[in-house]
What we know:
Elements: H1 2-5, H2 7-28, E1 31-32, H3 44-55, E2 60-67, H4 71-85, E3 93-97, H5 101-109, H6 117-138, H7 152-174, E4 185-192, H8 199-219, E5 224-229, H9 230-264, H10 267-291, E6 295-296, H11 302-325, H12 330-357, H13 365-396, H14 408-417, H15 422-445, H16 461-477, E7 485-488, H17 494-505, E8 516-520, H18 530-543, H19 546-549, H20 554-561, H21 579-585, E9 595-600, H22 609-619, E10 621-623, E11 629-631, H23 635-668, H24 673-695, H25 707-728, H26 732-756, H27 763-791
Parallel strand pairs: 1-6
Antiparallel strand pairs: 2-4, 2-5, 3-4, 7-9, 8-9, 10-11
Helix pairs in contact: 2-10, 2-13, 4-8, 5-7, 6-7, 6-18, 8-9, 9-10, 9-11, 9-16, 9-26, 10-11, 10-13, 11-12, 11-13, 11-26, 12-13, 12-23, 12-25, 14-26, 15-24, 15-27, 22-23, 23-25, 24-25, 24-27, 25-26, 25-27, 26-27
Amino acid sequence: MWVRNHTLAIIAVHVLLLAGALDLIAFHLPLFADFSYLLPQDVPAVRDLRRLEARVKANDIVLALVTAQSADARAAAASELAEQARTLPPDLVESVIDDDSEARAFFKAHRHLFVPVADLEKASAALERRIKAAKLAANPLYIDLDDPAPDAEHDRRELEELRARRRDAEARLDHSTNASGDGLIGMIQIGTSFRATDAGPGADLVARLDAIGARVTARHPGVKIGFTGGAITAVAEHDAIFKGMVLSSVITTLLVALVLVLYFRSAVLLVLLLGTLGIATTVAFGVAAITVGHLNAATAFLGAIIAGNGVNYGILLIARYLEERRTRDVDSAMAVAIRGTLRPTAVASLGAAIAYGSLAATSFRGFADFAAIGAVGMILCWVASYVLLPALVLRWGAGKRSAALHPLIGSMLVRVFGFRRPRVVCGVALVGAVLATAVVARYVVDDPFEYDITQLRSEGADAVTARDWMSLSDRTFGRGYSGRTYIAADRLDQVPLIVRALRARDADVPPERQTVGSVASILDVVPDDQPRKLAILGRIRALLDDDALDALPEPERAELVELRPPADLGMITAQNLPRLVRDQLEEKDGRIGYIVSIRPAPRLDEWNGHDLIRFADAVRSIHLGDGETVTTSGASVIFADIVTSISGDGPRVTAVAALGLIVMVGLLVGRNRRAIAVLVATASGSLLMVAACAVLSLKVNFLDFVALPITLGIGVDYAINVAHRHDHEPDPIQTLRTSGSAVFVCSLTTIIGYGSLLISENLAIRGFGMASLIGEVACVMTALILVPALLALHHKPAIGARESVAA
Length: 807
């Protein structure tokens, strides 16, 4: 036998492959938790996002919140925290904003320039009339024979309104935006130098900030410090996914090992099987480092899935080897085992690869990456099972003749799934299929996709803590300090057009239906029409000159002096803005004022996918008044494209998987009852899975949708192995005892793999685990019940069938 003659060479080659794969995984396979990596990097939404990231100076804002029992304690702790944050490396921190006093003083001194021209014109005219009337009234020789001027009262109200607005503006400028009204809560804005989704720098920054926070709170008893924002949340999500990967892998390994050692009753064979599986899975991810280049939120946990499905081939081979080992020597038993299981497992492996590969038929990058890694993983697991595993068994696992396999599983399957009336089984299955079809039809009509974003995030302690601090920030300082959507203008003259177009969108819309909220731009700090405003303010200043007011009574004079503009008032330009404000407007290349930032409307729910899609549609493409169009991107746009991609490409992926499996079974199994039984069982299992998800109200998201094509592949895997053995042993009861037993163990190991995902802190991964678990149970049941029933329709039960129970 070829394997016997090349045992050491086979093992050596696989060790080298393992070493190379480990190197690739360690240094060339990063994990990107950002949802933007679930889309192709050349689609408009991602291109616009990368363009913005290249221009915006601070890629993200981390908010440091400080709470204390007194304003003084809060101020002292916040000041110390800010000073230490400024010492962090520039490749982590771009800016630290904790004191806006300079900016407030600047805008207070220039507050007159922010009054609209129309209001200034009206104020100038009202002042002129008021002063003229006051002077005449103060002249003892003046006798007013006319009726009171009809606009005198109007002028008085207008001037009083102007004074009230001035007092309100000054009150706002007198209070720091970095502290709450009572002074007990402070906020520090830390601009990061990296994208929020860069896990390495993000983790480094979080660790440093946590250390700083611990030092500050230790010196200020009673003070609490928390951090939130995009980078903090991204690190928490990344850690949750990574911990879930490790934990699910450990649990899967331990429980699968327990099941297999009980089934094989050989620790040596177990170690050899798991070693083979580990090498194949590792090499699959090594190939992914070359072909895909990274892991994302949809592929990060594929190791457990590949291992859970890929172990099936080795289980079937070893089970057959041990069965033959009772009557044959080592080499003959292995040769018969390979011949007896090679074809059905090859069909199963190809079916799984087709199921995974069908996901490449979508524009959704998360599916395409899943397809590449999963398909390659299935093929590599099958190859390793029939090249490396036999070599390992012949080298280290052939020390003694194996005892017979424990009959418990086979006997249990016969008692639970054995039948005497295959027609009854097929009839019941048909009725069940009709009912399941009705449930699935309603499920699809009612829109099965998940729009609640809270069901896609992590429930880990760090993620929940970050959300709690963000909630405090929103309540205290308002939304918008972190997570804004940016629009980058190509020219400065586009900025007012962009602002005007955004504000015009909801001009006549009720508040509850508005989409676009606050819009911030350089126009908020560099007002328009300044030369004209300065001219009007000059006239007002001349009107309020001391000499002109000398004739007025003292109360009247003091009242009007409040409105006098300063003599040294000059124009505001981007260059003379306070450094704090200028830094926020400046891009990486030094340009100032080209970025417009927006927030969703106050009543728009950012955790509601429907609302986010509406917001994304409103901002992704903005038509300017001059005929130009400006495009942008952001978290909402990315999420909207993900949902659109899944809903649009989902049916196509399912159709490709189903068609590919039908063609593959037809070509490799033939046009016979076996092929029909395999396809019917696969379709029934998949239909039952979707119906169960509908009954349990499981919604489809960017992860658990892949459970459907995977279930199709699993259905073929189990059904073909049962059908192949039945072709050589027509008695369905004997089929359940032999191949049925091995298939059940295969399913049990996969169930463990999917079940381990249920402990993940990430709700999207947990949902995938639940959907896949349902599909696994459905497929193994149809394989063990429906396939033998379909193949036994024209077969007379053997004597052993007396042990069975009626269906």
